[in-house]
Amino acid sequence: MIRTIFIRVDRVLSPQKVMRNEQRRFSLGCRRSFCFPDNIHSGGHTIASGCLRFEGLDIQCQDMLIIHERRTLSIACCRDKDFCNENLHPALPPLRNSASVPHSTRPHYCIGVEQDETYFTPGETLKDSTQWSQSTGSGSSFPMVEITIARQIEMVKQTDKGRYGEVWMGKWREEKVAVKVFFATEEASWLKETEIYETVLLRHENILGFIAADIKCTGTLTELYLITDYHEHGSLYDYLTSTPLDPKAMLNLAYSSASGLCHLHMEIFGTQVKPAIAHRDLKSKNILVKKDGTCCIADLGLAVKWFSDKNGVDAAPKKLVGTKRYMAPEVLDKRLNRNHFQSYLMADMYSFGLILWEVARRCVSEGIVDKYQLPYHDLLPTNPSCKDMWEIVCRKKLRPALPSRWRSDECLRQMEKLMTECWAHDPASRLTALQVKKTLAKMMESQDITI
Ligand SMILES: Nc1ncnc2c1ncn2[C@@H]1O[C@H](COP(=O)(O)OP(=O)(O)O)[C@@H](O)[C@H]1O
Ligand SMILES: [Mg+2]
């Protein structure tokens, strides 16, 4: 059995020092703190000291108090100077017999491995691996499979071009994965989004499943990868454009999106803590549709975390961000209280109201369905400015038009009520994600739809 010692250097290295360290595999990754220069194999043990690129793994100093099932790790920590891990020698706990060690025969997914090493047993799927990493007791949403996968992905076709780079459909063995490739200039965005995805307890069926993040250096080119589950239907925007809905399909899309948002917004306390997270760029293009007709929330690049005990937004956002068309009135007129985290959640709820409107328009009632349109399509130019938006949303206090046919359909009538309560001008009177989720659950029940 391979046993692994991880040693963390809890020290920020300057980029120059990082570049000088010839054994570093990632030219950019160590800026934030986690350094791992080498792997030593001795007597059946792998002693790894080097670079851990993400917080929240169960092999990090900050998590040492968590009792792990996996007793194959030992951690020693230091933080007094750069490369202080050179002289650390943590002792491994005594070996338990294999019957009492869960997963002891499984391959070890270790960070800092060489490119050609394979850590998967034949037939093992990504799902198996991510489930295993979740069941290790760390609760981290971050799977321990990242390095090997990132290096073995075959890029198949580009599916989209976004703000910070390109999105590709790739293949890992026979499984499809999505690869968001960030431009090298967008390292900060890649790091930010990765950091959000590796938040402890984030993993949820209605939040895009994170698989790995990696940096690939090919000569002069540096590519930053974010690898997630791939969803063939693409975004909710793509889906609505081409697909009319019946009430069941509409409620499935709405309920699952609300569940994802609810989980994102929710703070969880316990042996582990999940911060509340505001998305800040909710729109139909940032929600994906899964094969079973349910949704997952994606594009967490602008999200912010909040821990109530620390009483502050993780990195106090300097400027107001998001997609103009979906910006809440208080964002447009710059009255959003940036020191009050609930304000961000309420702004998300405004955007969510617009998404419910987009979905409801595509629901057929009495044989009629509306063509897909973006919110405010009839009131704004294609690329509206903040001033255009402010004029419509703040000064005139207009909201998307509600088709008269909705009033003669019970389900659409309730949807109308729900969306108007989400996009209320006064943020404090908007519904919370939990309230929306509960209302939609009741609506599904009355339609005999099982959740
Ligand atoms: N996992 C995925 N599966 C399928 N399509 C995806 C996936 N991730 C992103 N896309 C497509 O790529 C688009 C851009 O992705 P997104 O993460 O929103 O990047 P950006 O930050 O550039 O907006 C989405 O609107 C969607 O159409
Ligand atoms: Mg996006």
Structural account:
This protein is α+β, with helices and mostly antiparallel strands and about 450 residues long. It has 3 domains: about 1-115, no CATH class; about 130-230, Phosphorylase Kinase, domain 1 (2-Layer Sandwich); about 235-445, Transferase(Phosphotransferase), domain 1 (Orthogonal Bundle), CATH 1.10.510. Helix content is about 25%, strand content about 20%. The chain contains 11 helices and 14 strands. It has helices at about 15-20, 125-135, 145-150, 185-195, 235-240, 245-265, 330, 340-360, 385-395, 410-420, 435-445, and strands spanning about 5-10, 35-40, 45-50, 75-80, 155-160, 165-170, 175-180, 210-220, 220-230, 275-280, 285-290, 295, 305, 310-315. A 5-stranded antiparallel beta sheet has the order 5-6-7-9-8. A 4-stranded mixed beta sheet has the order 2-3-1-4, with no helix packed on it. Strands 10-13-14 form a 3-stranded antiparallel beta sheet. Strand 11 and strand 12 form a beta hairpin. Helix 8 runs antiparallel to helix 10 and helix 10 (about 410-420) packs antiparallel against helix 11. The longest helix has 21 residues, at about 340-360. The radius of gyration is 24 Å and the shape is globular. The two termini are about 45 Å apart. Residues about 1-40, about 45-75, about 95-120 and about 130-145 have low confidence and may be disordered. Adenosine-5'-diphosphate binds next to strand 5, strand 7 and strand 9. One of its GO terms (cellular component) is plasma membrane. Its EC number is 2.7.11.30.
Supply database-style keywords.
binds adenosine-5'-diphosphate, Phosphorylase Kinase, domain 1, magnesium, Transferase(Phosphotransferase), domain 1, disordered N terminus, 451 residues, 11 helices, four-stranded mixed beta sheet, globular, alpha+beta
